[in-house]
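The data are quoted verbatim here:
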Amino acid sequence: MKKGRRLKQIGIVLLVLLNIGCDQVSKDVVRKKVDFGEYIEIVPDHFILTNVENTGAMLGFGDDFSPWVKIIVLQLIPVLILFVLLFRVLLKKTLTLWDGTAFSFVIGGGIGNLIDRIAYGSVTDFFQIRLGFLKTGIFNMADVSVTLGVLLLLALSLSGKKIVV
């Protein structure tokens, strides 16, 4: 295997691990330092730090699923998808720096939330942004990673670049 390709693979793995690490460290700090349900205004009326547990997926999707359906839909399927995606990204010969970065963020963020679901049965969320009438749901660093990765993939796609994994 060529040295350049091996370095690209190492870079992807390191970026995935960095995303997982940032997510898990931030969640650990919030679990230890912020009381459950507490609202701390970091920037008054605009940036809130809290501590909530989401037993579903994004915006509570799947919160009402039975335990077995949750395991299948929120744990087993994501493990398979993330494993296949990581495997394909690592083996892709024509992957660009931007493609690798985008997929690393998506994979790292996905694994970060998956770790919570498997270890705790829920995902710790703690940020909320309010800008006038706009208000986000409560999210975490894994959500930020996935969102940034998807936005980068969208930007690459809109620029006319063909993304194949």
